[in-house]
């Protein structure tokens, strides 16, 4: 083999490697966010966020409670269903999340409970139901644990609501870390943007 042929072969093998490395770096760079996001060794993803919504507590709560409104508010959510209404403040929800090809979509089943505190604060907690009799073979089961949405009417202005997000999600199955970071890194910000946009449309 000549020196020139050797150089050509090196270029052929090195270029795909560099291109693949570049593809990995791009999503990681896009995933950078000011919102705290963490993926631990057990594949649990932790998402935290906080934002002020220009709407009273009752209106904001309605967008979390109403299934149709939640569909357009929650990032990545394709379908939401109430599997069982336990009481006015407690129910079992099914969420179907869209995942880019070639990975399978995810679904989660969890118990959601809302606690009204003195009419000025609402704590929505989400906890898993591991033994719930439900399965979809064309999707991967995800888990949500010890998660919450805390809605608080501002003491100085009842027309505004502070929303605090604390989520712990195990996406299940296999998903590359860069894809998880890409979605989780902007999830809270996207939810706040959707919520503000939907409320503005409703008021208009």
Number of strands: 9
User: Radius of gyration from the CA trace?
Assistant: 21 Å
From the N-terminal CA to the C-terminal CA, the straight-line distance is: 74 Å
How many helical elements?
5
How would you sum up this structure in a few lines?
Helices cover 34% and strands 38% of the residues.
Protein described:
This protein has 204 residues and is of the alpha+beta class. It has 5 helices and 9 strands; from the N terminus they run αββααβββββββαα. The protein has helices at residues 3-30, 57-65, 67-73, 177-184, 187-203; strands spanning 37-39, 45-53, 77-87, 90-97, 106-117, 121-128, 140-144, 147-154, 157-170. The chain has a 5-stranded mixed beta barrel. Strand 5 and strand 6 form a beta hairpin. Helix 1 (3-30) packs parallel to helix 4 (177-184) and helix 2 packs across helix 3 (67-73). It is globular and about 45 Å long. The N and C termini lie far apart (74 Å).
Topology:
Blueprint: H1 3-30, E1 37-39, E2 45-53, H2 57-65, H3 67-73, E3 77-87, E4 90-97, E5 106-117, E6 121-128, E7 140-144, E8 147-154, E9 157-170, H4 177-184, H5 187-203
Parallel strand pairs: 5-7
Antiparallel strand pairs: 1-2, 2-9, 3-4, 4-5, 5-6, 6-8, 7-9, 8-9
Helix pairs in contact: 1-4, 2-3
């Amino acid at each position: 083999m000549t020196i020139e042929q050797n150089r050509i072969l090196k270029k052929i093998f090195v270029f795909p490697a560099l291109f693949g490395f570049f593809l990995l770096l791009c999503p990681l760079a896009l995933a950078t966010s000011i919102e705290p996001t963490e993926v631990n060794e057990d594949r649990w993803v932790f998402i935290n966020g906080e934002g002020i919504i220009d709407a009273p507590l009752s209106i904001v709560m309605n967008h979390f409670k109403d299934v149709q409104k939640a569909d357009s508010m929650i990032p990545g959510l394709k379908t939401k269903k109430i599997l069982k209404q336990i009481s006015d403040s407690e129910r079992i929800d099914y969420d179907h999340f869209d995942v880019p090809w070639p990975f399978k979509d995810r679904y989660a089943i969890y118990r959601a409970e809302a606690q009204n505190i003195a009419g000025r604060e609402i704590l929505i907690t989400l906890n898993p139901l591991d033994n719930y009799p439900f399965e979809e073979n064309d999707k991967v089961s995800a888990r949500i644990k010890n998660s919450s949405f805390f809605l608080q009417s501002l003491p100085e202005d009842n027309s505004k609501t502070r929303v605090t997000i604390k989520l712990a999600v195990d996406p299940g199955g296999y998903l590359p870390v860069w894809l998880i970071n890409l979605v989780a890194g902007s999830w809270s910000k996207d939810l706040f943007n959707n919520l503000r946009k939907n409320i503005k449309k409703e008021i208009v």
